[in-house]
C-alpha cells in the first residue's frame, strides 16, 4: 500500500503591484510641491559674512530640485534691515528692503538637480551699520509659479563706509563715546528707505562743556557724507529732526563733508565737527 501523499495546495501568484513599491502619482507630487512639500530648496553661502558699506559681498546660491520639475522664474537677493516704528508708547519692529539684485534668468529645475549661481554685489554706501546689534541680512527668494517660494536668510555684519569711519573716529577723538545705534522710521531726506539710522554718543571727560550728548544721522554717498547732528536732543524726537523743526534753540546742524574734507584726515574732520558743535560753522 502506498503511503499517503502529502497534501499540496496551489497558490495564485500575488498581483505584481504588491511586489513593487508604489509610485506617487505625478499630479499629486506637483500638488505637494505647490504647498512647499518636496519643492526646490535654496541655500545661500557667503564668502564672508562681514562687509564694509560700499564694498563687495560675494558668494553663491545653491539650489536643489525637489520631487518634480519646477520652473524658476527668477532668483532675487534682498538686502534687508530692521527698523523701529514708534506709535505713542508702543514700538514695533518692521523690515525694509534696502536693495534688490536679480541674479538669474528663468530656468527649469529638474528633480534632484543641483545648481550653483555665483554672485558679487556692491553693497550700497548708505547700508546701515550693524554696530550695537542693528539687524541686517541677505534674504534669498526663488520665484516659482503657482507654488510657495523657497527662501533663505543670512545675517551679515556691516562695517561703516570709509567716510563714516573717519567721522566716527573723529567723534571718539573728541571724547564722545558710543551709547546706542538703531534704525527708526522716518523720512530720510529724500531717500527711498522708510527709515534712518541714528548713532548716539555721550560725552566723555575729555569733552569740555556742552553738548553732553550727540545724535548723529549719517547719509554716506560715494564721494561725500551728509550729516545731521543733533545736540542734546529734546523730546520732539527723530521726526522733527528730519523735518527740520528747530530743536532746543536750533542746535540741529545739517552739513556735507566733501571728499576733500574726509581725505584731510581724522584730526581735520574732528576740527570741523568741533566748529559745528560749538556753533561756529
Walk me through the structure.
The chain has 281 residues and is an alpha+beta fold. The chain has two domains: 33-159, Immunoglobulin-like (Sandwich); 162-277, no CATH class. The chain is 16% helix and 43% strand. It has helices at 26-34, 162-173, 237-243, 259-263, 266-277, and strands at residues 41-46, 50-52, 56-64, 70-87, 90-102, 107-109, 114-122, 136-144, 151-155, 157-159, 176-185, 195-203, 213-220, 224-231, 252-258. Strands 4, 5, 6, 8 and 9 form a five-stranded antiparallel sheet that branches. A hairpin with a 2-residue loop joins strand 4 and strand 5. The longest helix is centred in the middle third of the chain and has 12 residues, at 162-173. The protein starts with 25 loop residues before the first helix and ends with a helix.
Which fold does the CATH topology of the largest domain refer to?
Immunoglobulin-like
The count of DSSP E runs of length 2 or more, i.e. the number of strands, is 15
**CATH class descriptor name of the largest domain:** Mainly Beta
The average pLDDT value, as a whole number, equals 81
CATH architectural category of the largest domain: Sandwich
Largest sheet: 5 strands, antiparallel
Order of helices and strands: HEEEEEEEEEEHEEEEHEHH
- From the alpha carbons, calculate the radius of gyration and give it in angstroms: 30 Å
Helix content: 10-25%
- The number of distinct helices, counting runs of at least 4 residues, comes to 5
- Indicate how many domains the architecture comprises: 2
Poorly predicted runs of 5 or more residues:
1-14, 23-38, 242-250
Amino acid at each position: 500500500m502506498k503511503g499517503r501523499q502529502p497534501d499540496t495546495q496551489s497558490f495564485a501568484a500575488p498581483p505584481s503591484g504588491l511586489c513593487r513599491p508604489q509610485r506617487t502619482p505625478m499630479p499629486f507630487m506637483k500638488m505637494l510641491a505647490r504647498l512647499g512639500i518636496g519643492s526646490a530648496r535654496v541655500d545661500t553661502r557667503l564668502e564672508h559674512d562681514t562687509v564694509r558699506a560700499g564694498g563687495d559681498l560675494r558668494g553663491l546660491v545653491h539650489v536643489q530640485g525637489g520631487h518634480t520639475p519646477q520652473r524658476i522664474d527668477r532668483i532675487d537677493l534682498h538686502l534687508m534691515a530692521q527698523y523701529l516704528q514708534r506709535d505713542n508708547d508702543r514700538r514695533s519692529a518692521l523690515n525694509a528692503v534696502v536693495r534688490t539684485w536679480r541674479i538669474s534668468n528663468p530656468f527649469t529645475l529638474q528633480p534632484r538637480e543641483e545648481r550653483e549661481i555665483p554672485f558679487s554685489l556692491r553693497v550700497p554706501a548708505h547700508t546701515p551699520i550693524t554696530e550695537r546689534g542693528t539687524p541686517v541680512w541677505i534674504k534669498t527668494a526663488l520665484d516659482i509659479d503657482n507654488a510657495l517660494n523657497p527662501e533663505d536668510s543670512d545675517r551679515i555684519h556691516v562695517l561703516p563706509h570709509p567716510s563714516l569711519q573717519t567721522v566716527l573716529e573723529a567723534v571718539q577723538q573728541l571724547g564722545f563715546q558710543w551709547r546706542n545705534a538703531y534704525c527708526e522710521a522716518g523720512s530720510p531726506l529724500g531717500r527711498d528707505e522708510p527709515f534712518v539710522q541714528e548713532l548716539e554718543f555721550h560725552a566723555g571727560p575729555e569733552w569740555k562743556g556742552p553738548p553732553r550728548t550727540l545724535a548723529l544721522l549719517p547719509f554716506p554717498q560715494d564721494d561725500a557724507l551728509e550729516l545731521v547732528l543733533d545736540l542734546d536732543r529734546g523730546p520732539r524726537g527723530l521726526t522733527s529732526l528730519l523735518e527740520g523743526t528747530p530743536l532746543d534753540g536750533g542746535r540741529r546742524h545739517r552739513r556735507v563733508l566733501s571728499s576733500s574734507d574726509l581725505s584731510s584726515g581724522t584730526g581735520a574732520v574732528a576740527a570741523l565737527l568741533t566748529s559745528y558743535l560749538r556753533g561756529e560753522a
